[in-house]
C-alpha cells in the first residue's frame, strides 16, 4: 500500500472545519427561499443563487478534504463510503440547483417556485443524512440515539460478585478503563491508527504500529508504552483534550497484560495477585473506599503575575491551574526540553522555585533528575503530588523529602531506589501512595514496613 504524504493528511484534517461552511450556506439558502414565498419578502429570493454558489464551492472543498482525510485509514469503510457518497451527491445536486437558478441549465419541469423549494428541501435532507453519517464516523454509531428519551437502553450488565477474587480481570477491571479512555477513538467505526478496542480479536490484531498488547509483557505493549509517555509527546495516549489514565488504571492494565497474560477470561483468584493489586481492584469495584480525604482544601496563595508564568513557559514548563482562580498549578516539564543536561535542569528548577507555594502537582519525568534537584523541589511547601519517573534518583534523594509536610502521592518508578528508602517513606507522615515499579524495593522488606499504621501504600511491579 502506497504511503500517504503527511501534507495530504495535514490538509485532510481541515475537513471538520470546512464542512460546516456549506451546511450554513445551504440552510441559509433554504430559509431565504422559504421566507421569500411571502409577496412582501420576495426580494429575499434574489440572494438564493449566491448562497447556493457559496454552498457548492465550500461543499466541493469539503469533499476534497474529506477524501484526503479518509486516506488515513482510520475509519470503518462502509460507513465512510456512505458519508462520502452522500456528500458527493449533495454537492452535485447543489450545483444543479445553482445552475437552474441562474438560468445556466434549462429544465422546464424544475423552473417553478414549488420545484425550487422542493429542490432545496431535498438538499437539506441530504445534508442531514450526510452529517449523520459523519457524526457516526466521529463519535460512534449510537451517538445520536444514545440518550434518546423513552427508549429501552441496551446495557451490558455484569453479574454481581461477592468478593474481588471472583472478578474476571478483563471484564470487571480492564474493559471499563478501555471503554472510558480509549474506545471513543478506537472502535469498529473509527479506527485511529488502524486500531480498534471493540472486541478481543481487534485488540490482538493491533493497528498500524503492530501489536497493541504483548501477552505477558506490559512494557513491550504499545498500549502501555503510549500511556507512559510524556503528556506533551506526539504519541501520548489518550491525546490532548482527553482525560489521561490514572496511575491505578495503568497499574490495572499492566496487571491484566503481565499477570493474566492478556487473557479475557482469567479471574483475580486464578493469577498471582499482590495485596496492593487487590486493594486497587477492591477500590475500583467499590468493595473498599479510597484512603484519601473526603474534602480537599486548596492552600491560599498569592496570584502569580502573568509575566512570571510566561518566563517559566519559555523555559519549557507547562502550567494548568487546577481550580479556576485558585492560583495553584499542575506543572509539567516535558523531557524534550532537556538537551543541555542536569545543569540546565538545575537552573530551570531554581527559577521555578519562585512559585514554590503555588505548585500542587509537579511532573518531571525522564529528565535526568538527580538527588540534588530533589533538594530544590523539597522547598515547594504545598506540593502534594510528585511524579519523577525514569530519572536518576536514589535513596539519598528521598531522604531529603522526609520532612515535607504536604506530600500525598509519589511516583518514582524506574529510578535507582532500594529497600533503604523505606525508612524515609515512613517519615513522610502525610504520604498515602507510592508508585515504585521497576525499582529494587523488595516485597519481603516492604511487608515488614507495611505493618506500621502510618506507612503509605507502596505499589511495586509485582502485581
From TrEMBL:
One of its GO terms (molecular function) is electron transfer activity. The chain crosses the membrane at residues 17-35, 47-70, 82-100, 112-133. Coiled coil: none annotated. Residues 14-138 form the DUF2231 domain. Keywords: Membrane, Transmembrane, Transmembrane helix. Gene3D superfamilies: Ribonuclease Inhibitor. Residues 182-241 form the Cytochrome C Planctomycete-type domain. The keyword Protease does not apply. Pfam families: DUF2231, PSCyt1. PANTHER family: CYCLOINULO-OLIGOSACCHARIDE FRUCTANOTRANSFERASE-RELATED, F-BOX DOMAIN-CONTAINING PROTEIN. This is Uncharacterized protein. It comes from Allotamlana fucoidanivorans. The lineage of its organism: Bacteria, Pseudomonadati, Bacteroidota, Flavobacteriia, Flavobacteriales.
Amino acid at each position: 500500500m502506497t504511503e500517504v504524504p503527511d501534507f495530504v493528511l495535514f490538509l485532510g484534517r481541515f475537513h471538520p472545519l470546512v464542512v460546516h461552511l456549506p451546511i450554513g450556506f445551504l440552510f441559509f439558502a433554504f430559509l431565504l427561499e422559504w421566507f421569500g414565498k411571502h409577496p412582501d419578502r420576495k426580494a429575499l429570493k434574489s440572494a438564493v443563487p449566491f448562497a447556493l454558489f457559496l454552498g457548492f464551492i465550500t461543499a466541493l472543498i469539503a469533499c476534497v478534504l474529506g477524501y484526503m482525510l479518509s486516506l488515513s485509514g482510520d475509519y470503518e469503510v462502509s460507513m465512510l463510503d456512505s458519508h462520502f457518497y452522500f456528500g458527493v451527491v449533495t454537492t452535485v445536486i447543489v450545483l444543479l440547483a445553482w445552475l437552474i437558478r441562474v438560468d445556466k441549465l434549462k429544465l422546464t419541469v424544475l423552473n417553478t417556485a414549488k420545484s425550487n423549494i422542493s429542490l432545496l428541501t431535498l438538499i437539506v435532507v441530504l445534508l442531514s443524512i450526510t452529517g449523520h453519517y459523519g457524526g457516526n464516523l466521529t463519535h460512534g454509531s449510537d451517538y445520536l440515539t444514545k440518550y434518546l428519551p423513552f427508549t429501552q437502553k441496551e446495557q451490558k450488565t455484569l453479574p454481581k460478585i461477592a468478593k474481588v477474587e471472583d472478578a474476571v480481570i478483563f471484564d470487571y477491571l480492564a474493559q471499563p478503563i478501555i471503554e472510558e479512555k480509549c474506545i471513543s477513538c478506537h472502535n469498529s467505526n473509527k479506527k485511529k491508527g488502524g486500531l480498534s478496542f471493540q472486541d478481543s480479536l481487534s485488540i490482538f490484531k493491533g493497528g498500524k504500529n503492530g501489536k497493541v498488547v504483548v501477552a505477558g509483557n506490559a512494557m513491550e505493549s504499545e498500549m502501555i508504552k503510549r500511556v507512559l509517555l510524556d503528556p506533551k509527546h506526539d504519541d501520548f495516549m489518550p491525546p490532548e483534550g482527553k482525560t489521561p489514565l490514572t496511575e491505578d488504571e495503568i497499574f490495572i492494565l499492566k496487571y491484566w497484560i503481565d499477570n493474566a497474560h492478556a487473557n479475557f477470561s482469567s479471574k483475580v483468584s486464578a493469577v498471582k495477585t499482590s495485596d496492593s493489586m487487590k486493594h486497587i481492584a477492591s477500590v475500583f469495584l467499590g468493595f473498599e473506599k479510597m484512603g484519601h480525604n473526603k474534602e480537599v482544601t486548596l492552600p491560599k496563595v498569592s496570584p502569580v503575575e502573568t509575566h512570571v508564568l510566561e518566563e517559566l513557559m519559555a523555559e519549557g514548563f507547562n502550567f494548568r491551574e487546577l481550580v479556576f482562580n485558585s492560583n495553584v498549578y499542575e506543572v509539567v516539564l516535558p523531557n524534550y526540553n532537556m538537551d543541555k543536561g542536569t545543569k540546565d535542569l538545575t537552573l530551570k528548577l531554581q527559577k521555578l522555585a519562585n512559585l514554590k507555594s503555588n505548585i500542587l502537582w509537579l511532573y518531571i519525568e525522564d529528565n535526568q533528575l538527580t538527588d540534588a534537584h530533589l533538594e530544590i523541589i523539597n522547598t515547594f511547601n504545598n506540593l502534594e503530588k510528585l511524579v519523577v519517573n525514569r530519572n536518576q534518583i536514589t535513596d539519598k534523594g528521598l531522604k531529603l523529602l522526609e520532612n515535607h509536610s504536604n506530600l500525598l502521592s509519589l511516583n518514582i518508578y524506574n529510578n535507582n531506589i532500594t529497600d533503604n528508602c523505606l525508612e524515609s517513606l515512613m517519615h513522610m507522615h502525610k504520604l498515602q501512595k507510592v508508585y515504585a515499579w521497576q525499582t529494587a524495593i523488595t516485597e519481603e522488606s516492604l511487608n515488614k514496613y507495611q505493618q506500621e499504621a502510618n506507612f503509605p501504600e507502596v505499589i511495586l511491579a509485582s502485581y
